[in-house]
Specification:
Shape: globular
CATH class of the largest domain: Alpha Beta
CATH superfamily of the largest domain: P-loop containing nucleotide triphosphate hydrolases
Number of domains: 4
CATH topology of the largest domain: Rossmann fold
Radius of gyration: 31 Å
Distance between the termini: 19 Å
Strand order of the largest sheet: 6-7-4-3-2-5-8
Helix content: 25-40%
Length: 681
């Protein structure tokens, strides 16, 4: 979480070389040191005699060196024989310095800490930590903390710096006493002292599991800093001005009347929330999330209608040309008959004349749809009131900010078809208003998922043939475009060539990310028109593609895909009236993570449940994606185990910002320093 020095805080007193190493860990001042907590602990408060050690157990021994020699067979190593009054042990070092050899000279008394092994030549330790002692030298009175470190930075150096910070540093409370007592949390100073220097009788299992009350206090403070930062950003945006988008005609109602389907209850709720936001004089920052096929596009279209009816423009940005064009075709089909000027901006337009055309289009159209082309230099909107960003996690903070800067602080509607688990939404998306489409439109057919080993590929080819002969279409998705010897994966090009041979009576098409935009569009159009039976593709068809007659999805090397990708790809079928299937071909032997993923996708169809289990496997980092650059990441709190702390911190953050602003500021400085910034995304 710590990436920059806190402003106005003195740097750590150390040599320039040491400060550079500390900076790699995000440690710049005493406040940083105080919250740089141990990974684990070692018990050096007691000595275990050699007649009482058990193999496989880490212990501290005190021995006298009997011999020390460097051996070269079977590899270079320093072999030290040592003994106490009860027995002998061998200490082996495969990398060592002359200074270490000197400390381990014959007759030296040392204390060594490590795991004891039982070897052919008796007891031994490999690469133990050790230091020279005198006879009857007192033992430490606290457990030894082992800190996260970096190359060339000894644990002992960190111990000394942190011990000094515990004496000289600011350990004053930032949590109001009334709040601390209400939440039954221990004091900060007491908690940090305990975690850095636990007493000999401390329960190491509880400490290592991080569920000791002292750990709970630290984790709460960390989550509170995140919530304060995000909540402050949320409130700051409320102070900014934005266009008030109140519909002046019935464009939205006319769109609804023209549709061959009605909205679900979830879609109606979402539209009401968004309509209320757009009518406010401050910018909307709403995340609309829903499972595959939940109907986010029509909700976005109705939001665009409100902006257009109010006399403003709407922009719709998608991460890939295929997805952007899908949106363009669908929205144009819905809105052009109602008199709305819908335009498409392609990033593949390179010439000056084409760029001038882009600029004119952006200035004139009421709804502009495109990829990153929307944020190119020279593309300016006349009256941009609403920016819609699909698959928002694929865009970085700077890209979303660039789109916002194309207008006069327009409202932003961000959409995601990757369901975000509730605890993640509460923490990393706490600066946004979140709307969930938790209801699928009627008519979505259930999808059967099948797992097939790759030695049964011909069975799958036969299944595809039977499927197409019944009048339907299929996708066959591969993870790579070209051969990779390292991964030895079946590629899209190879699969395409093989299917032409295996199924000569069928029409196959190939689409991947390296095709030119017009080539991709032509293949996709042919598939949508039913002219292609089997579409071999890479993950460019992961989101947004809607071909109701395609009711079979084959995914090659499914073990190489993430859960969200598998769920997205599976959602490309089941959009028509036919029973749909998803066949996951996997190559063995499967690793434990791959086995877990395939089991989850096989057993679950609910995207939120899949996302929840995925979060347990992967952690939050990949879910948050490009948003990380603006959101403080958690080092200590665990979103599953500490969900209750997130709930508590949300309430306390609101209370502190309004009733204890000085303490809130001090808390942010302690945990985030200069990284605490208003989130611009």
């Amino acid at each position: 979480m710590l990436g920059l020095p806190a402003t106005g805080v003195a740097p750590i007193r150390a040599s320039e070389a040491l400060r550079k190493k500390l900076a790699k860990l995000g440690l710049y001042n005493e406040a940083d040191l105080l919250v740089h907590l141990p990974l684990r602990y070692e018990d050096e408060t007691r000595i275990t005699s050699l007649n009482r050690v058990f193999t496989g157990e880490p212990v501290q021994i005190e021995v006298v060196v009997l011999s020390n020699e460097v051996q070269y067979q079977p590899r270079r190593q320093m072999v030290v024989r040592a003994a106490d009054e009860y027995g002998e042990i061998t200490l082996r070092f495969f990398s060592f310095y002359p200074s270490q050899q000197a400390v381990l000279g014959v007759g030296s008394r040392i204390r060594a800490f490590g795991e004891v092994r039982g070897g052919f030549f008796g007891l031994e330790m490999v690469h133990p930590r050790f230091h020279q002692v005198t006879e009857n030298q007192p033992l430490p009175v606290e457990m030894t903390p082992i800190y996260p470190s970096t190359a060339g930075l000894a644990n002992s150096a960190l111990q000394k710096l942190i011990a000094r910070a515990l004496v000289d540093g600011d350990l004053s409370e930032t949590l109001p006493e009334v709040v601390r007592l209400r939440l039954k949390l221990p004091g900060l100073a007491r908690s940090l002292h305990f975690l850095h220097k636990p007493p000999p009788d401390a329960d190491l299992d509880t400490l290592h599991a991080r569920n000791h009350p002292a750990w709970r206090r630290v984790k709460f403070d960390e989550v509170l800093a995140q919530q304060l930062s995000l909540r402050r950003a949320y409130l700051a945006r409320r102070e900014q001005g934005a266009p008030v988008l109140v519909a002046k005609d019935n464009l939205g109602a006319r769109l609804l009347d023209s549709l061959p389907f009605g909205l679900t209850g979830a879609q109606l709720r979402a539209m009401a929330e968004i309509a209320g936001d757009l009518a406010q004089p401050y910018p909307m920052q709403r995340l609309l999330q829903g499972d595959v096929g939940a109907g986010k596009t029509i909700v976005a279209a109705l939001a665009a209608c409100q902006a257009i009816s109010a006399g403003w423009q709407a922009a719709f940005m998608a991460p890939t040309e295929i997805l952007a064009e899908q949106h363009y075709l669908k929205l144009k089909d819905w809105l052009a008959p109602l008199g709305v000027k819908v335009a498409w901006l392609s990033g593949s337009l390179k010439s000056k004349a084409k760029r001038e055309q882009l600029a004119a289009t952006a200035a004139d159209a009421q709804l502009v749809i495109g990829t990153h082309a929307l944020i190119q230099d020279g593309v300016d909107f006349a009256r941009l009131g609403l920016a819609i960003i699909d698959e928002q996690h694929r865009f970085g903070v700077a890209q979303r900010l660039a789109l916002r800067n194309k207008g006069n602080n327009p409202h932003q509607l961000m959409m995601s078809a990757t369901p975000i688990p509730r605890t993640l939404a509460m923490s990393y998306y706490a600066d946004l208003d979140v709307t969930v489409l938790d209801e699928l439109p009627p008519g979505r057919t259930p999808i059967k998922t099948r797992l097939v080993a790759d030695n049964r590929r011909q069975d799958v080819v036969g299944f595809v043939k039977k499927h197409v002969e019944e009048g339907r279409q299929a996708y066959w998705v591969c993870p790579l475009i070209e051969e990779s010897e390292a991964l030895q994966l079946q590629t899209a090009q190879d699969t395409y060539a093989a299917l032409l041979v295996d199924l000569p009576e069928l029409t196959a098409g190939l689409v991947h990310g390296r095709l030119k935009a017009d080539e991709k569009q032509a293949v996709m159009a042919a598939f949508a028109a039913g002219e292609i039976d089997v579409l071999v593709a890479t993950t460019v068809i992961e989101v947004g593609v809607d071909v109701p007659n395609a009711s079979l999805m084959v995914i090659e090397h499914a073990e190489r895909f993430g859960l969200s990708q598998l769920h997205q790809l599976r959602g490309r079928v089941g959009r028509g009236q036919y029973e749909s299937s998803c066949v996951l071909i996997y190559a063995g032997p499967l690793g434990e993570i791959a086995r877990q993923r395939l089991k989850i996708i096989f057993e679950n169809t609910d995207g939120f449940e899949i996302a929840r289990q995925d979060l347990q496997i992967r952690g939050p980092g990949e879910f948050v994606g490009a948003r990380q650059s603006g959101v403080p990441l958690l080092r200590y709190a665990d979103l599953e185990m500490d969900a209750d702390l997130v709930e508590m911190a949300r309430e306390v953050a609101e209370e502190m910002l309004t009733e204890h602003p000085a303490l809130a500021e001090k808390h942010l400085q302690r945990w985030l320093g200069a990284r605490e910034e208003l989130l611009k995304s």
